[in-house]
Amino acid sequence: MPLIMAFHAAGNQNTQLRNITQGSALEDHFVMAFPKSQGNGWNPSVDGQSIDQRYAELLANYCIDTSRV
Question: Which residues share a beta bridge with 34?
Answer without folding.
Answer: none
